[in-house]
Amino acid sequence: xxxxxxxSKDLSKIGYRDDVARGLAxxxxxxxxxxxxxxxxxxxxQEVLLQPEAYQEHPFLAPLALKLAPPQKQKSFTSHTxxxxxxxxxxxxxxxxxxxxxxxxxxxxxLPVAVQGALMPDAHAGFGLPIGGVLAVENAVLPYAVGLDIxxxxxxxxxxxxxxxxxxxxxxxxxxxxxxTHFGITGGLEFAQEHEVLxxxxxxxxxxxxxxxxxxxxxxxxxxxxxxxxxxxxxxxxENNSLGLPAQTYVALLSHSxxxxxxxxVAKHYTNLAVDTCKLPREAQQLAWLSLDSEAGQxxxxxxxxxxxxxxxxxxxxxxNLAKAIGEKxxxxxxxxxxxxxxxxxxxxxxxxxxRKGATPAHAGELGIIPGSMTTAGYLVSGKGCADxxxxxxxxxxxxLSRGRAKExxxxxxxxxxxxxxxxxxxxxxxxxxxxxxxxxxxxxxxxTQLVDIQGRFLPKVVRMNKE
Length: 468
Known about the structure:
Layout: H1 8-13, H2 19-32, H3 38-50, H4 62-68, E1 78-79, E2 89-91, H5 99-108, E3 114-124, E4 131-137, E5 140-141, H6 143-146, E6 153-159, H7 163-168, H8 170-180, H9 207-219, E7 229-237, E8 249-257, H10 260-277, E9 278-279, E10 290-291, H11 295-326, E11 332-337, E12 340-345, E13 351-357, E14 359-361, E15 367-370, E16 378-383, E17 392-394, H12 403-409, H13 412-421, E18 425-429, H14 441-446, E19 452-467
Parallel strand pairs: 1-9, 2-3, 18-19
Antiparallel strand pairs: 3-4, 4-13, 5-10, 6-8, 6-11, 7-8, 7-19, 12-13, 14-17, 15-16, 16-19
Helix pairs in contact: 2-4, 8-11, 9-10, 10-11
């Protein structure tokens, strides 16, 4: 271009508004139009601005054209039909499970990717897969079969403290729960929390995770709403238990919550993506899947695992903060996910992805926690590795009444009376969590003797939940 050069103001005059596009245009002009008259260069650059699609394969103007009009990603989708008959489902505690949950599980077993299913004795209807549903599929992941609260989990700390410690320190334990836990959809603890999970490289690997990092920092060490809780209680350990602890009663801390806003945002984003790209008959659309051979499937898998590790980190902080508050170190700790998907192998050697939506992993010797309600027993268990149950057990007592029905059926005064009658101190809580809204935990445990062995029995004593 001789003594002429293209300036930013020249480009502004012909309609270039974006700084990056202007910089790119000036750079390309300087490199490729050194000996072309300025007016001709301006004319070419104006043509690129007006018709970028025509220049997207040009030998050197393509980068500018692609910046001005990025190619639209075509949302390609694949339509699938359901199988005429459902695949095999093993049901535990059949009589205590509502027909709607069985129907949902049957529908899931008509998916072309479905391999095997199981219903746990605490099962009840949910969205997509029923709560208490376990589904093995071929090379795919179903966001709604994992659920909204990815990596929701249980964590138990057992302390070398006798029963009388709890009786004489109830007030202090109540204050510790008030000070070192936070509940609800928004907000977090009032003092900074640190954990190595916040430095994980996965937070930089997708645009969604980058956006969610700040929320993950704010919510670390806190709990959600609904049936999430943190509670002190007493655990009576069985003879010859898997933890090798003397068979006596200990003070214990039990928590139940998941991956907070991080997991919910990941679940919603990839559920929508699955529904857009995996077209199923209307009644089964919530069971849309992402192939693990796809970019979206791999992104969800990475995000799900990060959300699960973040849920674990939240429990780590809860237990660490409360252990410090009472000046004790735990003798033993046990934790387990539900609401997650795992790679696994069936006895015939077939490689599958097992989704547990409200079900506890129970491979042979694997420890897990099955809570009841705020006034009933929870159980520390070890799995028996039952293949028919897809190496799973229940994740709790399971709801007898929906949240809405519970709110209609019970009053706060009735709940306070029931809780006090059971010798439990309650902070927060709502009628949605009224103990009678849940199935009988003893009947649920009786229905899964093939799946787990009981190692300890936990009774809640000082309970904190979200307040309505």
